[in-house]
Amino acid sequence: MKRWREALISTGLLALLFLSGCSRSEQLPQKESGNASRQEPDTFTENPEYTEENISVEKTETEKPEPGPATLLYQGQASIRIVTDEGKVIYIDPYAGDSYELPADLILVTHSHFDHSQTDKVEKRNEDCQIITYKEAVQDGIHRTFGLGFVTVEAVEAGYNSLHDVNDCVGYVLTFSNGKSVYVTGDTSKTEQMSFMDEMEIDYAFFCCDGVYNMGLEEAAECADLVGAKHNIPYHMTTNTTGRQFDRELAEQFDVENRLIVEDGEEIKIE
To answer: Which side of the chain, N or C, has fewer Cβ within a 10 Å radius?
Structure first.
């Protein structure tokens, strides 16, 4: 009887151990479920302390030079070549002269007349060279501004006479990285916008003054007074299609304050 009772107790203990093991094994999935619900951190989190001021930039030998004076070559008639302080080359109204050997970064055309639009003379062009003509510069009567990094080009009114329609002609104001600016009127008579251009504080302004297809000397001087540039330069002063595209005698009759005469083939610093 005693042995039977001991056997019965042993059997009960084994059963209890078995049930206890089953209970523990059923709790394991709950632990796994807890792990599955834990959120993984985002693969990218914004650093709130990040600003452009604490970016470390290593200077190299290819870094652009500090801003300095650009150069301007007057080639005659309305043709101008500008080299910025970064070495960027800009041709305006290519036609006169023969200094087109430098690869162009930008070509500007004020209107379609042949003595302003001979872009084929600029044979060498850099891969990212841009051409801006009156078609791009004026759209739906709105004069556009182009920010190109090394220069900002603002199209302004031009035309205002029987041979030059305001919708097909523009002037340009170029502002360089060194803060200096150049204005070319293109072919025009006095425009309404000129009355407000003194606010632009232009450094160099070119005024056409042939007196045949455009305004003459007296009207050009009036326009110069309105614009108020630091240097007023007469250009586009002949109607010749051959020979020299410059008239020294006429240029000296351009009676305006701050007159600067730049002969064809002459290069000046924009400073």
So the answer is: N
Task: Locate all alpha helices (DSSP H) within the chain, ordered by sequence.
Answer: 2-36, 134-137, 217-227, 248-252
201 within a domain of the structure (yes/no): yes
Residue 254 counted as domain residue: yes
User: Any idea of the CA torsion for 112, 114, 116, 121, to the nearest 10 degrees?
Assistant: 120
Tens place of pLDDT per residue across the chain (271 aa): 444 444 444 444 444 433 444 443 333 333 333 333 333 333 322 333 322 233 232 322 334 334 457 899 999 999 999 999 999 999 999 999 999 999 999 999 999 999 999 999 999 999 999 999 999 999 988 999 999 999 999 999 998 887 888 888 999 999 999 899 999 999 999 999 999 999 999 999 999 998 888 999 999 999 999 999 999 999 998 877 777 889 999 999 999 999 999 999 999 999 8
145: domain range? 89-270
Q: pTM of the entire structure?
A: 0.74
Decide: 137 and 143 in contact? Cβ < 8 Å: yes
Tally of structural domains, the chain: 1
> Which residues are paired to 80 by β-bridges?
74, 92
Distance CA 143, CA 85 (A): 27
Q: Confirm whether 55 is domain-assigned.
A: no
213 class by beta-carbon count within 10 Å (0-12 exposed, 13-18 middle, 19+ buried) = middle
In a domain, 263, yes or no: yes
